[in-house]
Design goal:
This protein has about 475 residues and is mostly beta strands. It has no helices and 24 strands.
């Protein structure tokens, strides 16, 4: 049976095979040619390829009725509205996408025509996920419109900082990178808006070790913080250490270790060791000063630092220190606002209780007649999303009395008579508690004569990521 072709007009193009009839097959054009419909012409019978024609020239901002074969960009930033599906016919297809990433705030309702169904249920649905895009195909009267594609990924150029390193958590629109040891904060992408490249940070150094034998408590590690205006949280009273605007580069992170324990025996007599510095970019926090050990010579004292170590009676059977109960100085080297405070003095006369180490927000307490000095209080910040105190001073050791309490923020309690003080809490920069005294007549083999170690520091970085 011969094929029949009816046309109104065929214009031949030189060298082009326009129409070729072979049995019941009609070929339009030759290999490599493009077949184009004239302006205003329409086609039927070719079918769809399973995609839609996106209506980029008509962004939808109010309730509308969709047409088969079309995709729409729905802008709900001004309020929620509805997309009415067309009457269903097998193979009909409609798509829609969240144009302004606001479906989570203002939903787009998708309503079927009359009593038709969506996924087998005769009811409307609400698209309520940020950046969501869906494609519906009408199958039959049993299931109606089926969602054949549902994407909740929002692939865009990121307008905020993107970074790696440390332990990463989120709080609202902010990401928080916490470093409890050495690492690298690597900025992979910066924001076009320079304000979003300013980060918040907390840099706390290692706390000082404590003295042995009614020794002073260790000073807290230096505490330095700055809050970016784009990362809302409640900062500590010490906020304002200086803004840091990051670039797309790697920032090495140093987290300071706690200072070593001082000792009365075995000789030589030493104070607690100074904590190590913590560093992020241009910010360095100084390690806390070590607590003094009673009977120590001045040349071995290292009690100055971020916060000063607590003092103790010196010069016993050694070269005197002047004054012999002096404590360490805080905010050494000096920065603004101060990164810490002085330690408390030890008692120059009996019962010779040790002084408390300085803390981020308070001076260490002096040795008192019935107790060692309390450690100075640390600073509390919500940079991680919750209130956490850091950089408390260690309590002073008791001679025949109780040891002083450690300062809030990881400071260790001072030891009572014949009791070793507590170490500073790890990753707080807390100073160690001074050790209690070995009394005359106590068995030298069991009496505590060694202090404790300071708590390691921490570095926390926070920035806006969405």
């Amino acid at each position: 049976m011969a094929s029949t072709i009816k046309v109104d007009n065929i214009q031949n193009q030189c060298g082009a095979n326009i129409i070729k009839e072979d049995s019941n097959t009609i070929t339009l054009g030759a290999s490599g040619d493009t077949v184009t419909l004239a302006s205003g012409a329409s086609q039927t019978g070719f079918g769809r390829t399973g995609t839609v024609d996106w209506q980029t020239g008509s962004i939808k901002t109010a309730t509308f009725t969709a047409a088969n074969g079309e995709g729409y960009f729905a802008n709900t930033s001004g309020g929620a509205f509805t997309m009415n599906l067309p009457a269903g016919s097998a193979g009909a297809i409609v798509s829609v996408v969240d144009y302004t990433n606001t479906f989570q705030t203002n939903n787009l309702t998708v309503a079927p025509n009359g009593s038709e169904k969506i996924g087998g249920i005769a009811s409307s649905i609400a698209l309520n996920t940020e950046g969501q895009s869906v494609t519906f195909v009408y199958v039959d009267a049993t299931e109606g419109w089926k969602n054949v594609q549902d994407s909740t990924s929002n692939v865009t150029g990121n307008p905020y900082v993107v970074a790696t390193g440390g332990t990463i958590t989120t709080c609202g629109n902010d990401k928080i990178h916490t470093f409890t040891g050495p690492g690298t904060f690597t900025v992979c992408n910066t924001a076009p808006c320079s304000a979003n490249n300013e980060v918040s940070y907390l840099v706390v150094a290692g706390g000082g070790g404590s003295g042995g034998r009614h020794g002073g408590g260790g000073g807290a590690g230096g505490f330095r913080e700055d809050k970016s205006p784009v990362t809302p949280y409640t900062a500590s009273p010490l906020e304002g250490a200086g803004s840091i605007t990051v670039t797309a580069t790697a920032f090495p992170i140093t987290v300071g270790a706690g200072g070593t324990a001082g000792q009365f025996a075995p000789t030589p007599v030493t104070s607690g060791g100074q904590g190590s510095n913590s560093i992020f970019s241009t910010i360095t926090s100084a390690g806390g000063g070590g607590g003094v050990t009673a009977g120590q010579v001045s040349a071995t004292i290292s009690s100055d630092g971020g916060s000063g170590g607590g003092g103790a009676l010196c010069g016993m059977n050694n070269t005197p220190r002047s004054p012999n109960e002096a404590a360490g100085l805080g905010n050494t080297p000096p920065v603004s606002p101060p990164q810490g405070n002085n330690g408390g003095t030890g008692q120059a006369v009996g019962p010779y209780n040790g002084g408390g180490g300085g803390g981020a927000t308070a001076t260490g307490g002096g040795g008192a007649p019935t107790t060692g000095g309390n450690g100075g209080a640390g600073g509390t910040t919500h940079i991680t999303g919750s209130p956490v105190a850091y950089a408390g001073g260690g309590g002073g050791g008791g001679y025949v009395d109780c040891g002083g309490a450690g300062g809030t923020g990881g400071g260790g309690d001072g030891g009572d008579n014949n009791t070793q003080g507590n170490a500073g809490t790890v990753n707080t920069g807390g100073g160690a508690g001074g050790t209690g005294s070995m009394q005359v007549g106590s068995p030298s083999t069991t009496a505590p004569q060694v202090g404790s170690t300071g708590g390691s520091g921490i570095v926390i970085i926070r920035y806006k990521f969405q």
